Amino acid sequence: MTHPTSVDPDLEVDPRPPLTMPDFEAMNVEVLSGVGRAKARALASVEVESVLDLLTYYPRRYIDRTNQAAISDLEDGVEAMVMARVDSVFSKKLPGSRSMVNVAVSDQTGRLRLVFFNQPWRDRQLSPGQEVVVFGKLDRYRGQHQMTNPIVDLVGDETGRIVPVYPQSGKAGLQTREIRRWVDEALRRSAQRGISDPVPEYLRRHHNLIGRHEAIDGIHRPESMDAQYTARDRLVFDELLRLQLKLIMRKRAVERAAFGVCHDTSGKLVERFTSSLGFPLTGAQHRVIGEVVADMARPVPMHRLLQGDVGTGKTVVAVAAMLTAVQGGHQGALMAPTEVLATQHYLGVRSLLDDLAVPAFDSLLTERPLRVALLTNQTPGAERARLQESLALGETDIVIGTHALIQEGVDFDSLGMVVVDEQHRFGVEQRAALRAKGSQAASPDVLVMTATPIPRTAAMTVYGDLDVSTLDEMPPGRTPIATRWARTAAEEAEVWEQVRVEVGHGRQAYVVCPLIEESDTIEARSVTETYERLQSHELAGLKIGLLHGQLTPAEKESVMALFRSGAIDVLVATTVIEVGVDVPNATVMVIVDADRFGIAQLHQLRGRVGRGDQESTCCLLAADAVGIAAERLRALVETTDGFELAEADLELRGEGTILGERQKGRNDLQLASLRRDKDWVVGARRAAGEMLDDDPDLQQHSELRAEVELLLGDDDADYLMKS
Ligand code: ADP
Ligand code: MG
After folding, report:
1. 580 C-alpha to center of ligand 2: Å?
2. Model pTM?
3. What region does 142 belong to: left with phi over 0, alpha with psi -120 to 50, or beta?
4. Which residue, 241, 400, 439, 533, has most beta carbons within 10 Å?
5. Ligand 2 mean position to 74 CA, how many Å?
């Protein structure tokens, strides 16, 4: 493609259509006059190869020069920005491989000293004569004014009032002002043809969005900070709209293509089950079972995520789903990530299903007992062979197990319902493998359970291709778990005393440690060491058990069995007990080095207590937690609501970790933030859904469709869909 090197926007209108994203993608950055081989290589190292990549390489922040101060105006202790010239640079080694770089800068009003500790590269970055923008707080050292470790941007002689600062990679040899120049050139050369806007006018009006050309211009060359915000809004909406179009299109395509089992939901088995429970369902359980059963009756395979905080009663929902399959003559399978959890689910489900009988299809009007089995790698050979045969013949109704379920040789007569517990522990392939155990003709329905709730708008983005059911109500009569954070030795001593008191009342306790072995880099206390110390000191005389990941499954199970039976008072464990372990008599959870855990994990661990009718406590031991770690612990102390904590987590960590679980590879979300842009997520999802209702394949919006395909490759989407 050839372009005039400069275009006067007042010339007559170019007859060619406006430039689209695919047009920009087709132009290599080398078409820009300042970009030669070397710079192209440097840009490629930050993943900028096409002009499209460059135009979507957004400024990291902006220097608002209307807020600029003169050196003589700076006040002690107040943050400020000054633009100045470098006069001298002087670097000095300090004892212990530390270093200090001293830089003198000045403007028309005065001089200022900048001091950088342990940033030896400043010596290379800065040289006399350079124009720099310095952000920092003025302080005083031996009576002299200085800024210590300020932020410094090399700006050159910029004239604009708002100067964009690009993420620049020193390693790549790119400077923010070069990038600015290239972006400028690209925009100048696009001015005549213009940049196409594929988002329908009605949507732009409804959401008060500026045009795309104006937005791309405004994000790179804003006239004011406000202009940059409106530009950002528009581009955020575009990113989220593309993502939602992709997710919803894929979801609907799968629904059209696949055949599911049409479950007969008219039987009475689920009702009989729920009325045998000895407690009424919560409103949320009732609603969610309704959602699941309605899905199961449909001819398309269900693909549903069940999220609910620890203790909201997900198991009851899972069992209801499996029984819905069973009453129609199919089978159900529940897969858990570990031996301990599978066994526990098995025991729990068995006790829930006590005495439940199912219609016997071979002899009318009779009933037979429901058959539930456990299959793990510990299942002995002969028993395993028997079980496999009975599964293949359809004699076993419900099987619960580990990934042993997806091994060769495990075949079902008619697998109708697959429940996967704690989805993030399984790879996508493992989930697909279990689903593939269904018959050729019809895919089983899939319900994925997770106890790590994520905020609603994040779920729309991360799980936008799944239906989501949420248990947002605790069964009544739970005594809330009190959480305390012990910071001092005296407070820690109180914690161990409390453990003794509880054990004295016949209760049990967990002590959780973050790591099994001492490592060089991390000084976490090893669980074995803690175990030995507690046994000889703080908890001497109590019966203490030890559970960690290096025990064999049989050893683990036997420790768990002892704890369940009450033969052990205190279980010292690593996070192997993180999920699902259910011992209602345990009333104290002590978490050692709690600052080393994430919010979700701490919340999971805490959920191991408070499962009976006794008041329970969670004690967080963390003597020197500061910053974000301290914020996390404070959040845990303040609330036990998993959704509130998920919001707090999102605030503290950003969305990277949430997205990271599912969205790897090329990610179109450059600007959009699940934290800041919640309303845009909701708006984009609604817009995408409505657009696809009228135009399922985006035939009427082919440019938008091309963009979705360009920016959200099929690999990414396949990855999204498989889970
Ligand atoms: P989750 O898996 O969501 O953490 P569980 O399914 O393990 O929760 O249920 C936790 C406990 O609550 C179990 O002992 C279960 O029998 C009980 N339970 C479930 N639903 C109710 C309810 N509606 N009312 C009272 N107790 C319930
Ligand atoms: Mg559970």
Report:
1. 5
2. 0.70
3. left
4. 400
5. 59
